[in-house]
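Schema walk-through. Below, the input block comes first and the output block second. Nothing else is stored per chain. Lengths vary across the set, and this one has 119 residues.
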Amino acid sequence: MHSNLSIMDNSELEKSKIHITVEIIEYIPNSVVIKTILKKTTGNISVMSFDSGEGLTEKTTPFDSFIQVIEGQADIVIKGQSHLLKTGDSIVIPAHASNLIRPNGRFKLVQTVIKSGYE
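--- output ---
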């Protein structure tokens, strides 16, 4: 049974310092871990790790989201259509499109949400 525990760290990364993106975040058993890289009123960038069997439930957001898998692979489902992304692959989830992240083993991704341009 999966706990679907989400662990969030909203503190931004140190600026003007080199970071190895895939090492910013670790896997935690039975969890989705979310670490904020940048958080602004115009959007945010986060890195996420998903343990095997963990995903995110279907949702719709009013903003475009850029997803890039940085380790492993995941199914990104947009409006019912599944897209298998492997390490290095990326996709843009359009604003107002139903979407979900379905696990395919352990994986990590970077999500960039742009909030400007909709005012």
